[in-house]
Amino acid sequence: MTRATLLMLHGQVRDSLAMNALAVPIIVCWGLIALLTLRATWIKGVPWVFFHEKFGRVAVYATAATYVALVALWALREFGYCGGRVPIIG
């Protein structure tokens, strides 16, 4: 995931998606959670209260669903589906 994220942030979209097809949803979820925690800290003084709002709960549930899909993709690739294992670049 780290390699796919770094490739995406460097503008190498095709390589990033070949490495991990869920790079875009994960990056969006991370960014959304980060913004919501910053907003909650700014307004309430603590970061975890963003979950008290409906949009915060939706963001957390979307992140959880994306991680479930990420684990499923990993398992499928481990057994040779969805393109198989990603080669390790050293």
What can you see in these coordinates?
With 90 residues, the protein is mainly alpha-helical. The protein has one domain. The chain is 69% helix and 0% strand. The protein is built from four helices and no strands. α1 packs antiparallel against α2 and α3 (23-44) packs antiparallel against α4 (54-78). The longest helix is centred in the C-terminal third of the chain and has 25 residues, at 54-78. The radius of gyration is 16 Å and the shape is elongated.
Summary keywords:
4 helices; 90 residues
Task: Kindly summarize this structure in a few lines.
The protein is mostly helical and 90 residues long.
Flag low-confidence runs: none
Query: Any idea how many domains?
Result: 1
Structural class: mainly alpha
Largest sheet: none
Blueprint (SSEs and pairs):
Layout: H1 2-9, H2 13-19, H3 23-44, H4 54-78
Helix pairs in contact: 1-2, 3-4
